[in-house]
Design goal:
By secondary structure, this protein is mainly α. A two-stranded antiparallel sheet has the order 1-2. It folds into two domains: 97 residues, Arc Repressor Mutant, subunit A (Orthogonal Bundle), CATH 1.10.10; 142 residues, no CATH class. Helix 8 crosses helix 9 and helix 10 crosses helix 11. It contains eleven helices and two strands.
């Protein structure tokens, strides 16, 4: 059976979530192509010329292999995965019953929230950990934009504390090297940071050597996403994008920089 024949038997395939599409493609590779194990490149090859592969493919596959009763498990190498028995059952159940993307999305969110709660348990500061846990809990009521706005606020507030406690002289020196309206500023307490636009704050952190260029890129990308989510728009914010947002900022900012 070709991938086109397989997809024709699935009504409204385009309405399915990213997770369900990935599992369906993994199921096709196993049942119709004999690939017990697959890598991200196998999914991409399967989609070639037919449809766009699920976005953030490698991260999504890795996420679906975590936890008990996960639909995927790691194979013979770190880059190879296979469907588990629960994964096979899940795909076959919604194939046979005609469940739509909403059901699978609910399952994804349930798995993701459980995973993220374990992930953020690595945060040392108790109040911060509680705040971020509350932000993640917003996902449970499908408040995806609220989660993104709160996680961004937590990450930036964390950087403020890190600078005040460890790198204040470096930060102020970087401000004085600028040739704009910020050059006259001197940060003495957390409230002073409110005078600096977040985009400029990221630039100053990089100029001061407080963050690496890779972290700068992450922060600039996440700031763009936060700005989109903080204002009314027609942009669809998928659950996996929120999960990636939380992971990136917790792992690369909140855990990385001590306060």
């Amino acid at each position: 059976m070709t991938i086109l024949d397989f997809l024709r038997d699935i009504p409204k395939f385009h309405e399915y979530s990213r997770k369900s599409k990935l599992l369906l493609l993994a199921y096709y590779l196993r049942q119709h192509k004999g690939l017990v194990e697959f890598a991200a490149k196998d999914i991409e090859h399967c989609c070639q010329g037919i449809l766009k592969p699920p976005s953030q493919l490698k991260q999504q596959i890795a996420l679906l292999s975590k936890g008990k009763s996960s639909p995927l498990m790691r194979g013979s190498t770190r880059s190879h995965f296979s469907l588990t028995a629960p994964g096979m059952n899940e795909v076959e159940s919604y194939l046979s019953s005609g469940n739509k993307a909403e059901v699978v999305t609910d399952r994804f969110l349930s798995d993701a929230i459980s995973y993220l709660k374990k992930f953020i348990s690595q945060i040392g500061e108790e109040n911060q950990r509680k705040f971020i846990a509350e932000a993640v809990a917003c996902l449970g009521v499908d408040a995806r934009r609220a989660t993104i706005v709160m996680i961004w606020a937590a990450a930036i507030d964390h950087l403020y504390d890190h600078i005040l406690n460890h790198r204040l002289s470096d930060f102020n020196a970087a401000i004085q090297r600028r040739r704009d309206r910020y050059a006259a500023l001197a940060i003495t307490n957390k409230n002073d940071f409110s005078d600096i636009r977040e985009s400029a704050f990221i630039e100053i952190c990089r100029s001061a050597g407080i963050i690496s260029n890779d972290v700068r890129k992450i922060l600039e990308e996440k700031l763009g996403i936060r700005n989109t989510c903080a204002h009314p728009s027609g942009i669809e914010v998928h659950p996996s994008k929120v999960v990636n947002f939380v992971e990136d900022l917790v792992d690369n900012v909140i855990i990385k920089y001590e306060i």
